[in-house]
């Protein structure tokens, strides 16, 4: 207004807040994502705990029911009751294995697998699971990368997705499975703290069902969330897929447009080695034997039930109630062929230490661990150490029979080779250290210990060397110029599941040493003896050699 009070002009200020809003929205999305992940995390802890205790109870029931059935004449009416109880145990077992899968604690045995072959392999299972009204199109890219996954769990996950799609389409229509190679850089993985950049194999299940309403979408991975009528769905399908994907080092995401359809994307890590053929057990594999088994289990009922199953299969059984007692009986009479042991037991000596002690005395001794819980010292990061057999509770007699035979025959198959390894040629260590002086020093020490040494100065050089040469062990610095020693080791482990790896580090801890299994850490500064001890611990040198080296 001017001095007379007449209107003159308006001042107007405009500020473009689009960018600020975008950032705000992105932050909110990220927050939601993190909160969602945290919620699933704590639910997982709870679910895993329950499943563990539940499995021990079920184990006692399976064993007792199997033995009860044997003591009763086949035509006795009470057999029907036993059958019904057995079926209930089976349902309980499948429920608890789903809970373990969700809590990322199911024992996985990943190997390099061609996912297209894997799914083609179970074509008939898919067809009968989906019913006649469904058509499935499997579409895989040429030169598909192999994935590093557990075969049975992968199939189970994909079946879950297919059955969800079928249910959404009410049993009629066409759905598609598309398998492709994917590379992820850092910008693709924003808000995915657990994923590493790199190569993945993607399995996408696409349906054109009714889709999922926006308000339901955030809940679909929650355990027991279902929109299906009582008795139709447990709501554990997607939860197990979620746990499986994350435990395998991948992820699962779901996109849905109401009225258009749903696609679920399962990302699984790429394997570094060529795909191996998948081996399934057929019923003729179920055989007993006459070897002697040392069974270590603290729970008297589980012990009796398992011992009874083993004797029933023809084995001679000796039992011990804890690791200390097991060592004692093993030393009194070393004539046994297999150690079968529970993982978590009371007492000062852990079952892992007991097993290591026994294996140090008898390197060819096969070991089968049994547990209701995979997150024990035997299973690191949900993966069973190479060379160790693992059986999850509750198990059936057939499952026990297969694992026991597997464990016994794995040694028969590998023992002569190992013997030759030790006697015929010196152990060959690949040494990776970027500091030339330290490398020289370490090569000297290794030389003094009677090993052959090949030196490298970077992560890439190490990986290249491993592609072409044969080495018995890797000694690697954690801080390397091109990539961390842990990353190198992780890649090496995928191709060489049994290779002993020693990390040399100045860091307080090396997480990869825990998760990869068959690793040792020597803290800088370390001396000759420290290195010798680490080599001995991993079975590269005998304890005597390590001690006499100096
Ligand atoms: N392809 C899909 N289309 C539409 N809705 C889906 C789809 N997949 C999952 N859902 C929704 O997510 C819910 C949870 O799925 P989830 O597989 O976890 O459990 P469920 O299928 O209900 O039961 P279960 O798998 O244990 O038999 C389903 O009940 C359904 O509402
Ligand atoms: Mg389902």
UniProtKB/TrEMBL annotation:
<feature type="domain" description="PAC">
    <location>
        <begin position="1"/>
        <end position="29"/>
    </location>
</feature>
<dbReference type="InterPro" id="IPR003661">
    <property type="entry name" value="HisK_dim/P_dom"/>
</dbReference>
<feature type="domain" description="Response regulatory">
    <location>
        <begin position="428"/>
        <end position="539"/>
    </location>
</feature>
<dbReference type="Pfam" id="PF00072">
    <property type="entry name" value="Response_reg"/>
</dbReference>
<dbReference type="Pfam" id="PF02518">
    <property type="entry name" value="HATPase_c"/>
</dbReference>
<dbReference type="InterPro" id="IPR001789">
    <property type="entry name" value="Sig_transdc_resp-reg_receiver"/>
</dbReference>
<dbReference type="InterPro" id="IPR003594">
    <property type="entry name" value="HATPase_dom"/>
</dbReference>
<dbReference type="InterPro" id="IPR004358">
    <property type="entry name" value="Sig_transdc_His_kin-like_C"/>
</dbReference>
<dbReference type="GO" id="GO:0000155">
    <property type="term" value="F:phosphorelay sensor kinase activity"/>
</dbReference>
<dbReference type="InterPro" id="IPR005467">
    <property type="entry name" value="His_kinase_dom"/>
</dbReference>
<feature type="domain" description="Histidine kinase">
    <location>
        <begin position="49"/>
        <end position="272"/>
    </location>
</feature>
<dbReference type="InterPro" id="IPR011006">
    <property type="entry name" value="CheY-like_superfamily"/>
</dbReference>
<protein>
    <recommendedName>
        <fullName>Histidine kinase</fullName>
    </recommendedName>
</protein>
<dbReference type="InterPro" id="IPR036890">
    <property type="entry name" value="HATPase_C_sf"/>
</dbReference>
<feature type="domain" description="Response regulatory">
    <location>
        <begin position="292"/>
        <end position="408"/>
    </location>
</feature>
<dbReference type="InterPro" id="IPR000700">
    <property type="entry name" value="PAS-assoc_C"/>
</dbReference>
<dbReference type="InterPro" id="IPR036097">
    <property type="entry name" value="HisK_dim/P_sf"/>
</dbReference>
<keyword id="KW-0597">Phosphoprotein</keyword>
